[in-house]
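PROTOCOL LOG
Step 1. Enter all chains and additional molecules of the complex.
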Amino acid sequence: MCCLSKEKTARITTDADTLRSEIRDKSIKVLDIRKEEDYKQGHIPEAINFPLSNLLADDSPDKVLQYTQSFGIEDETSVVVYDDTFGALASRVAWTLQYIGHEDVSLLDITYGAWRRLGLETSIEMPSLNKKTHSLKLQPQILAAADYLMPAKEKGAVLVDNRERLNFLEHHIPGAINIPYRMLGSHQNILRPKEELKRLIQNRNISTGSEVITYCGSVGTLSGLGYYALKSIGLDNVKLYVRSFKEWKSLDKPIEKQSDANYWDLSAE
Amino acid sequence: MSKTSLSQSKPDNLPKPKINWAKVEEAERFAEMVKLFRQGKINRDDFRRFRLQNGAYGSRMTDDYSMIRIKIPAGEVYPEQLEKIAELSESFSIGNAHVSTRQNFQLHWVALEDVSEVMRGLSEVGLTSREACGNSIRNVMCSPLAGICPDEIFDPTPYAIATARFLLRNPMNQSLPRKFKINFTCCEKHGMARIADIGLIPYKVEVNGKLQNGFKIFLGGGLGAQSFVAHQLEEFTPEEDLLYTIISVVRVYDRMGNRENMARNRMRYLVNEIGWEKFQNIVLKERAVVRATQSVVIKLEVDKTPEVLRKVSISSELPSHPQGFSRWIKSNVMKQKQPGYSVAFLTLESGDVTANQLRVIADLARDFSAEGRIRNGFAQDIVFRWVRDEDLPKLYAGLLEVGLANPGSLTMASVIGCSGTTSCNLALTNSHRLAKEVQRKFLELKLDEDDDLRSSTIKISGCPNSCGQHEIATIGFYGGGGRLGKDMYPLYTMQLGGRADEKAMLGLTCMKVPAKRVMPTILKIVEIFKSEKRDGETLDSWVHRVIDGNGGPNVKSLNDIKESLKSAVVAPTIDQDKDFYVDYGNDGSYHARTGRGECAA
Ligand code: SF4
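Step 2. Run joint prediction.
Step 3. Record the structure below.
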């Protein structure tokens, strides 16, 4: 059992009820990762729009720090992030904040679409922003670079590919195992209940002590969700290969595939 | 966890699944066994046997992935079950499910480590994959028209369900010499009674002035590398003898079936080897023993409570008929024997259906089927029954929105294709994709509207094993490899004239047709037929006339057909036509490659 204060800093997801009361208390900053035009049509009250494309245009620590400060986020501010894309985009932003050293960031445990279907309050007003200062303390232990992967694997790290099954079969990093992002969420929540996630990991013989590196197709969104899924069930040593398979291919690194099978033709689309 | 939860409004008079086929302990056991297997504590063969018994096949070229076959007894599926299958396919498979020719749903490319999770999910809605593969009694089939067929004598569905119930997990069925198939049909016309180990057709006779329910029972049929049409056991088998007969046949097969030779151990070989009369005698003797010793102990629990049909939404405003509606009505819809109701067939492509489509099908079943569920058909298709005639335009519009309103289902355009190289270890060709290509071409050319072709069929298997049922097709194909010099190309053997009705016969081998020439060959056959046919003659009857040597005026025999097609199937060199050497769905050149067979339609 961990104590309450630890629980607080290790909060991975925030549920809708908690978020609503924290918004009322004004004790929190909420980031909406959807496109600007979607945000303008309605968003969670007080949420600040931070489209993923803005982050991806330049995700260097300095630029991210600038954004953080312009949103009025200080070192101790609680931040909750949401999107409407299974929590994958929100995960990428949350991970980036953690990488520059912001500890208290969590994911809303449902998508914006689910929030609306529940009939919860939305707003079209933009909150006013006051610039604050935030320190920069990089957390390299949660980042994996291309050259890190194979040596780490040699030493027993588990490589997890969070893309869909058909993409994985077509090609993947040698030795990776596939946990498609669709496996991570439930009908209601962006992440399954912990007991279920634990079972999925145990079924794969991965222990909580293992080092795990997640990756996906291109920018670390789906694998960002994979990262938080693993963190949520107590795996401590998880890293995100944020440049993912797109970079891996462009570097002409070795690739593995399931050959001699026409699995794509099973698709009804 | 959020305290507030998403609520969904669903009509409250929906029928629930009547039977829970599942046991969640089996999922837990499976997860344990996978761990032991991965740790090397169980050997590969033992694990394989266990895996198959629980409904998980190995995938093409790898045991790390499974195809999970979900048993659907009598083909009946409820909306919540469809939604669960959709969810499981998105989470653990490839976001698609597949309807087999034996009314199962199949999920492909599931990681071995996740099979137990799929089983667990299935158990939440009462479904199981137990005994869907391996040497056991497979899904008990029942005609999708049972209960609504104008020609049936009575509805066999309750008997099929009761039989499935009696046999599932029954020790008598856990280690048979090989797989065993039981098919119930509604009438002589619709069904596969003559190509199963046990096939049954409802029948009534007068005994002492009273009409008595019973069956015509057929034994020892089946398709495969060597196929046989079944024999009828006796004139009439009364309903009380149904279970005893099934038990006797299973026992005789269990005792006498060939356990040595994997290739010849289906019951049809036993029947063939010892001769029908002898086999028939043994079964009848066995049944006398079973009847005498067990009749007090066991009986089939047939649930004959008549079903209360729901009131479904009756369309108030008549929508203007959506585009394509009349073509769809003509080729996908039949009238039920109950006035005012229709049955609508969905045209899938080789049985593939996306998770999203499954959800829509579930909703449409709730809204438009008075029985509140669907049935999987015999032809890799899905069937809506008990639809009010006036609701058909709305049903069509709903299907149209998700790409499920293709015409052609009850016509020659509904092409069967087994999984082939998409997932099957034994496959030599991509029969799955070829079937899709042929279907698309037929629809494009509007051949589904041609009444001369309507009663004919095209069925394609990826190897001689017949999971694609090529032997009962008017035009059937099975995959192989061809060679010109050192270059290999995908090749099919074409058979003509197969059928599964009361005149059941297996197609006769006509000639070899390269994969990339299958389409033109079929069209050429249609063309020859058109110029040769007699007034009112259909393609399948013309084919039979020709096979019997009574063709004419110009094409008189099978050999003549061959002659007229010969020039179309000549192999070009690889320099002349590179594409010829590449199978559908591939970009590289063709190699025939197979792994260890577990066989999967
Ligand atoms: S074994 Fe069956 S499923 Fe596999 S290719 Fe042959 S006929 Fe098709």
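Step 4. Note key features.
The interface with chain B takes residues 15-17, 109-110, 114, 117-118, 120, 164-166, 169, 177-178, 180, 182-183, 187-189, 193, 199-200, 203-205, 258-269 of chain A (CB under 8 Å).
Residues B 418-420, 424, 426-427, 431, 461-463, 465-468, 599-601 surround iron/sulfur cluster (CB under 6 Å).
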